[in-house]
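Hi Q.,

Before the meeting this afternoon, I wanted you to have the zinc ion prediction in hand. No need to reply - just skim if you have a minute. The sequence and ligand are here:
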Amino acid sequence: MFADDTESVLQAAAALVNTEPEASHSGADELSRVEDVAAFYAGRSYSGALARSDEELAAVRGLRTELRRFFTESRDDAAAHVNSVLEDARALPRLVKHDGYDWHLHAVPNDAPFERRILVETAMAVSDLVRADELGRLKECAAEDCTAVLVDLSRNRSKRFCDVGNCGNRTNVSAYRARRALGA
Ligand SMILES: [Zn+2]
Ligand SMILES: [Zn+2]
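Predicted structure with the ligand bound:
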C-alpha cells in the first residue's frame, strides 16, 4: 500500500510515542536509559550512528510529544507541521540504499543527530499519507483508558486498538459485563 520504508518509519514513530508512561504497557517511562534508545534503534530501519549519550536520550525523549501530534492533528495541520519540520532541518531529499533496504528517501545526512533523523524521516512518511489522503491511518487507541497511538495498515482501515495493552479484548470484556449488568 505504502512504501516499506514509509510503513516502518511510521511504526517506529508509534513505538517511540508509546514509550511514554501514559501510553506504555508497563505504565513506566520505557525510554529512561541510554540503553533504551539503543534497543529502540536496533529493531528499526534507521541508518547512521548513535551517540549513546545522555543528551541524545533527552532529545529523543523530548521528541515524543511532537511525534504524537502527527497521530492526532488534522490533515491541514499535519501538512503545515511537515513543512515546518522539513524547513527547520533544511531537508534535502535523496534516494539511498542501505542495510538491505531498497531505494528509499532520506532527507538529512546519516551523521545528523538521531532525533533529527527520526523527526525528518517521520515527516517524510507523513507527507506520503497527507498526499494520499490517508492521514486517518494514524490513530490514537480507541480504548477509553488508553492513549497509545497506532498505524492502521489494515485493508479496510478498521484497526482501532493499539498493540500495547490488550485494549481490544479489554474493551469487549467490559462492554460484555456492562450488557450483563444491565440485563441482570
Ligand atoms: Zn533508510
Ligand atoms: Zn490501547
